[in-house]
Fold this protein.
Amino acid sequence: MPRRTRWIIPFCLLAVTACAATVRGEDENPQPAAKLPPAAERPVDFIKDIQPIFVASCYDCHGGGEQEGGLQLDARDNALKGGDSGRVIEKGKSAESLLIQYVAGADPEKVMPPEDIGDPLTPEQVGLLRAWIDQGADWPDSVALPEGGDPRAEHWSFQPIVRPEPPDVKNDLWVRNAIDRFILRKLEAEGVEPSPEASRPTLIRRLSLDLRGLPPTPEEVEEFVYDERPDAYEQLVERLLASKHFGERWGRHWLDLARYADSDGYEKDRPRPWAWRYRNWVIDAINADMPFDQFTIEQLAGDLLPNPTLNQRIATGFHRNTLTNTEGGTDKEEDRVKQVVDRVNTTGTVWLGMTVGCAQCHTHKYDPILQREYYGLFAFYNSDKEENIPAPLPDELAAYEEAKAKFDAEMAPLKQAVADFEQNQLAQRQAAWERELAAATGPLGWTVVSPVSFTSAGGGTLTKQDDKSLLASGVSPVKDVYTVVLNTKQKRVTGLRLEVFADDSLPNKGFGRGESGAFVLTEITVTAAPTGDPTKAKSVTLHNASATSADKKSPIAAAIDGKDDTGWTIDGNQKDKRQVATFEVKEDIRFESDVTLNVTLRQVGGDNATLGRIRLAATAVEPDQVSELIPDHILDALTVAADRRTPEQQKLIGDYYRTIDPGFVKLTAAVKAQAAKEPPYPPTLAQTIAMIEEPRKNHLLIRGDFLRKGDEVPYETPAILHEFEPAGEQPTRLDLARWLMAPENPLTARVTVNRIWKHLLGRAIVPTEDDFGMRGDLPSHPELLDWLATEIQAQGWSRKQMIRTIVQSATYRQSSAYRPELVNRDPANAWLARQNRYRLEAEVVRDSFLASSGLLCRKIGGPSVKPPLPADVAALGYAGSVKWQESEGEDRYRRGLYIFFQRTVPYPMLATFDAPDSNTTCTRRERSNTPLQSLTLLNDPVFFETAQALGHRMMKQHPSDKAARLQYAFQSCMARRPTGRELEQLESLYDEMLAEIQTDKEIEGQLIGDIKVPPEEVTDTAASVAVARIIMNLDEFVTRE
Amino acid sequence: MDRIQQQMAQTRRDFLATSASGLGTLALASLLQQDGLLAAESSDPLAPKAPHFAPKAKNCIFIFMAGAPSQLDLFDPKPKLNELHGQPLPESLTKNVRFAFIQKESAVLIGSKRKFTPHGECGMELSDVLPNIATCADDIALIRSMRSTQFNHHPGQLLMTSGVPRFGFPSVGSWLNYGLGTASRDLPGYVVLTSGRGASGGASNWTSGFLPSTYQGVLFRNKGEPVLNLSNPGGVTLEMQKKGLETLSSLNQARYERIRDPEIASRISSYELAYRMQTAAPELIDLSGETQATLDAYGVGRTEEGMKFGRGGGKGTYHSFSTNCLLARRLVERGVRFTNIIHASWDHHSNLDQEIEFNAKMADQPVAALIKDLKERGLLDETLVVWGCEFGRTPLGENRGGRESNTGRDHHPFAFSMFMAGGGIKGGQVIGRTDEVGWNIEEDPIEVNDLHATMLHLFGINHLKLTVRFSGRDVRLTDVAGNVVEKLLV
């Protein structure tokens, strides 16, 4: 193989030159044509002149199924499309064609064929190739495809699925359905008898674990074991298929493929608080037996269905389970490309059972997938975006709608009252108010006061403007304090107003003197004195401040709180170039003569956030009227005679009046108060996929590098598979999903039934479930696989029907006991002369312990839970990024599939029992057997708690009968009665535990835990707990037999 | 022999009998092999296996300095860089380079405040913050020409731990245990010790990827309970545990006799090892048998007094890291194949001078003590000690957001330093050279895959031949590359 690895690199280098050449090519023609042998000067015939050269020098690596660097020279269309690095034949331009440059050895580093593969082409041969290209690269239809085609096209899994006839067998009596004929046929050929049917306790436990992921209760076992109806088994199957736990069990299988997790992954590993909404969808869809084609289409393209329902959009959460890297410094485009790559690869593995991901950086080494085709699939996902949408659960929505209706009903009369008032009273009342104003004698608004002295402590220059405002210029200090002296022409001061203006002379035409245009008034203080007599100065307390705008964190009150580290600043988005703050004066400031005010404006927040232009005004109206002073611009409008006002002025006055009419204000306040009671829309969101408006240009990425864009690649599917026919001009994910579920697709049905089979028989028909390609295993029962694949389609893609068919077979019902005589002949039990037995999956281990102890909470769906976790486990996450707030109450006892899955810190028990890490799609879980598993089951507090619960149950059920107690515990776990010998051993262990417990009072209490027990039962309860712990550690309990 | 051991021994013999008749997995074969009872190849996944050729190393201690320490302040002196302090880097070097945080336009070089002097007979130049490691210079092979392909921590760490910058692949320790098994009877073959803040990669740094979890790293804590769930629940006495496990074993065995599934035999042996770990693991972390001189040499009990720290891990980190180094030696003594000491973080984007001093002081004494201790006990020859990290740091000052104060360095995968000692490594040499500012490698570039190929080689493994079929590919630790670095070998 050295030549393969070697030639990947030259072809990639080639890509760089290729790009350069096409960019510069047209007019400059930079190629050293002089170095190339001249083109032949005669008409060239492809079949006579060209093909022989290809055959002799190229097809070793670029023909007969080989396509190094993605270049296939024995199929016309592919040859003209080029390789991983782009076109190699530029029709009519032989000098620019990479093919010529390579065979001519234009660059000694990149010569084709490679030195160790073949001799270089003669100048005559190069000349012929050049002439052929210059003459249009004519390639007749008759030889457009290689003789015999690509041998890989013959691969079994690419062949159409044809329904085979179930074979005849000798032992018809054993056969329960078609499946058994395929299995028995092989067994009879090998001269092997199938195993006997498993006992009823084993059957119900097997079925219950397979279909619900929970062991049967002792009552269920009794009922089934004594059920004398001829269809007792079928009835049981129906009960289990109808159980809501079915969706949890088979949903978890699907979540493995969906790489479901509750966090982003990578360094930051941020939680995904709404991931579970998709999990709910999966459970519901599977419980409803949504046909697998619909199940597929909704997950891959639910958003693109006509008028998609909320559920169809939630389904697209499938591809939101991709990791997200939010580590500082991550290149966003790189991460996006990685996500698309994961989505393509996951789709390939889950639906096609193909390792398409291998073609990301180069054409697939083994399977007929070109790198270009990989990016053809990439296109379908390349124009997606992630969107979190409101996704209330049905009961949340119902509750909301009810509350909303009630709210609306209460709101309606309030709004009506406002409307009535507007219609019937407002205009008259406003007119009356205006008449009142016209008759008034005192000042209606603020009186602007011209400053008599003003200074900038920071060294800035303040200049008085015509409008009596002060404009700052000159030195612009980081901090400043303005002191302004005002001689009012009034003997009393009850209020102060500060106006702040944006000005064209200020940076960015803003309010402040710094670049940001912002200001912070840290404090405003005032003293008052009779004019000309500063010795009588009194300090003035400002209160009841209000402002036209304020930043949330910097309210106007912060300017009069006596602190220099807080202050007033306006909301940065203000468009109004004038902002106003008003203050009331707390003391009664009143002198015999006029009042002089000394105003200090502290602006010491730093960062140059000083005031640019200000103006001050005062008032002497009664204190309770200060807040009612009419703003200047309203007064201005009011001075215009009513019939000469512009519509803007009318509106201005009208709007203002609405804020002061007591009747109207009362009614609108009632509306506002009610509005605050509006029930919030349910906060539940769902992570979904949607399309961006303008599809991205889709390029091949050279070596998979997001920075190295190759040729633009259209939406396409691998040519080795059935034809892709998009519904419209612009292909979409919906077309891809429909293509996957097309009846002509040879892979998806096979891949899907293979997985279902694996979950029920412990071994897949094609053991490499993720690889149906050239390197994958061959099916053990190819005809059975195809029969199942046609059956699932014939049954409308019903998952439940497929499962029903399989579990009803005699094959499924066999005992799983080992057959020593077959160990050497069929070590992997591929013939299925018995069922398989295997350790339960991580979640089912937990669920079984909780169920048998009676602790299990059987609630279906909802947010993920956080059962107890040893304290320093969470600390393994990066810099305390992982917070683990333990769940309380019944949530501690939820099923394993609901445990919050933090990617960088997986729940230890799940990881110990081989739960997938959820970083990429997982088609096959390991089933390891380690001492850490033993320690978990023996000592993990969560598991010990189940032993305690079972111990208490034992006593409750059989307070006075030791043997019955032990039998009960054994049956609760194993679904069968213990044998005499087993019971004997447990009894003697019980006695030994009892003896040990009696040596130390403290032991009792610790074993029993927090639950209250009558004094006479304490020791026996403690012994029951101790023995329950051992029973629950039996291999049989964690094994599906 | 107490009762449980008798029981287990009986179980073993029964298995031996069935195994002789050709049936199934014999999980205890390795132990029997040690007892000299069984010569045949075993199917216990962790039984010691023969390498491809005679190994130099038997065990590995991989000290993973996550976050990426600055090689320019520890291992790779650059006088020219100090001269050019404050100057921009020629555009030719940065043209096609991406940075995590640096703004290219305004970036300038920053020199190192550290003083480098030659050490040992070999004259290896090392920074003044590593005075103790400097005394091991003649045992150390210092590589100044490591290269990574990854810019960000998590992918970088995955590459360094598993040879591939993606999820789902086994880490070095898993590969070694998969390929060679482990000699440790009472402890797992792959132990992880951490201190400081968690590494970005979390548990993915010691995952077994697609290999069974048998091969994944087991995280030991260096105080309290060393392994999760090691202690019996309250109320379960030693006697009750023994009696319980005896009955458990006997019932499982009866089941085995009926069903004949070898997995039941494995389960019995898992419980047996678990039981032994219950004694062995607490014994491992019980340091009361160590002399005061040893404890002092490693710096166990040190405090960070007088040191300022921010990212380094906070109070208690010195003691914790020292303890981990000592535990690593104790693990080697007990035959544990791969020990991974992980410390984070060295991610000094700012405040470099203070932070690196804090971290160096933490690491210098115990790491040097570990090398010397192993040497004195005659263990260094068969123990490979590696100081590694995911990448290095830039000679440019970090000016995130155009900031003017350059007090840290950004990620730099193009050239960084690591060192190795023992286990067949030729000490007293410096391998590779970077350019005058430490930007690019000028001599002997070593890729992460080369490093892994060399590590496997030291263990007697041809990296091309240690493969596992996964996803249609024969996957190796070294991905599709890797060359053994001959210069590193004795």
About this structure: Chain B has one domain: 58-237+300-488. Chain B touches chain A through 82 residues (CB under 8 Å). The mean pLDDT of chain B is 85. DSSP finds 14 helices and 17 strands in chain B.
